[in-house]
Structures are given as C-alpha cells and as structure tokens.
Prior knowledge:
Layout: E1 4-8, H1 13-24, E2 28-33, E3 46-50, H2 56-70, E4 75-78, H3 94-115, E5 123-128, H4 143-163, E6 168-175, E7 198-199, H5 212-223, E8 234-237, H6 241-244, E9 248-249
Parallel strand pairs: 1-2, 1-4, 2-3, 4-5, 5-6, 6-8
Antiparallel strand pairs: 7-9
Helix pairs in contact: 1-5, 2-3, 3-4
The structure holds nicotinamide-adenine-dinucleotide (NAD).
Amino acid sequence: MSRRLVVTGGASGIGAAVVRTVVAEGGRAVALDLADPDGMAALEGVDFVRCDVTDAGGTQTALAEAAGLLGGLDAVYAAAGMLGTMAPVEHLTPEEWRDTLAVNLDGFFHTVRAAVPLMGAGGAIVGTSSVHGLRTFAAPGGVAYGVAKAGLVAFVQTAAVELARHGVRINAVAPGKVGGTRLLTANLGAHDLDDLEHERIADVPLAGETTTADVVAAVRFLLSDQARRITGTVLAVDAGQSLLGGGMLKARP
Ligand SMILES: NC(=O)c1ccc[n+]([C@@H]2O[C@H](COP(=O)([O-])OP(=O)(O)OC[C@H]3O[C@@H](n4cnc5c(N)ncnc54)[C@H](O)[C@@H]3O)[C@@H](O)[C@H]2O)c1
C-alpha cells in the first residue's frame, strides 16, 4: 500500500483494519486515535500516538511525532469520525451540531493541514466520507453527520486542485453500512426520533454485506501508485446504495 502511513481513527473499525493490512504486508503504520488501541499495540510495526483531531495544534504535534517514528510521511488515511447526536433539526443544539462537525470535518482539515508540510516528496491522502455525504440522506436526525460527510467531499475536490502543486493526491472513500463495525457512538437517548418517520424504499443493489476488507481495498488502491493519476475523486464502497437513494423521509399527512 505505502511505506510510511499514518491512520487517524486507527484504533478501531475501518482505520484499524487498514493499519493491520499495511503491517501484514510488511509496511509501517502509525495509528492516531483519541481512544486506546484495540489490541493493536501488540502488533509489531504499529506505533500508537494519542491524538484528538478536533484540536488543530495537537493534531499537528501528533502527525509530526508519527512522521518522526516513520522517518517521513507518504500517506495518510483519515478514518477518525463519529455519528454524533442524531436529532430532529429543531431539537439539535448548536453544541451537538458543532461536536459532529468538529470531529468529522474540522478533524479532517486539521489532519490534512498538518500532513501536507510533512510530505516532502509528495504523497497521498484519503478521507472517509459516507453514503450519507453523497446522494443518500436517509438517516433520520442525521443532518450534522450528512453535512460533515458532504463537506468532506467538497474539501477533497477543492484541495485536490490546490495540493497537486505539492505532488499530493487527495481522495475519499464513501462507505455504505459496513458490517462487523461497532455501532458508531450516537446520542440516540437524548432525542425522540419517532417523529421522523422513515420509510425504506430500496435496499442496496448488490446482495451481501459490505465489510471492512472492502473499504480497506478501496483505501489501499487510492493510496497506491496504481492511482497515481487519480485525485479529487470519491470512491463509493456501498454496493450501489447511493445510486438508489436508499430511503426517504415520508411527508406527514
Ligand atoms: N461503519 C460504517 O458503517 C461506516 C459507514 C460510512 C462511513 N463510515 C466512516 O468511517 C470512519 C470509521 O468508522 P468505523 O465504523 O471504523 O468507526 P469506529 O468508531 O470503529 O472508528 C472511529 C475511530 O475514530 C476515533 N475518533 C473519534 N473521534 C476522534 C477524535 N476526535 N480524534 C481522534 N480519533 C477519534 C474513535 O476513537 C475510533 O477509534 C468514520 O469516519 C465513519 O464516519 C463508517
């Protein structure tokens, strides 16, 4: 995949799967995360640096430490994210809105701005959007998450043009529901979502389940030299879900 990789949100789920794949292939990866690593510390070749991506300065320090451990930086996979508070728009507080944007969107900005100066000879960055940032806005109460993930797509497209002069490619993956991942922490208790009637109008076109391995394969490709002419793209790993819309909110009679 790449020789010197940093993964934010690398302590669990998709991020940890990417770290494990790189290490299994003999590469070096440093996992950055707010939380303790999920048994990864035991894996040879994996270093862990604690990092809260909502903190711009802290992210810069953590990326610099990681690059020091790796002897440079060629690639970044930004997986740090959370579902955040799911609530009807009129009940979502400004603080809840801000928290979701802070992790999913500000965190990506902080990561990219810290990584680019460390990528002396160019490099590749992959962010993590979602079907909820494409054409599938079917998560009731998920306006903050959807905006953050759609914002990440616009970030990647805008930054790709700008970062080309540094030889840095930037792309995103947009997974659908990934089986086997732990439920992203959502503050479902604080708000009543019953009011938002949700009607599924379509399932995913391809039968079966999307797994972390499917997302890892997409990240792996976008970070590799095979994608050397690819920048500013979003690769949906959603079995076609975003083409169908996936669901809709019913108008109340
Ligand atoms: N699992 C899915 O079905 C799915 C679908 C679409 C998109 N995604 C996106 O994929 C990414 C990874 O999701 P996952 O399913 O592996 O979830 P996960 O909860 O297992 O992993 C997310 C990681 O991010 C870390 N994190 C959260 N806030 C952080 C912060 N402020 N600073 C640093 N690290 C922080 C968490 O500690 C965790 O280790 C997320 O961005 C998520 O939005 C997931």
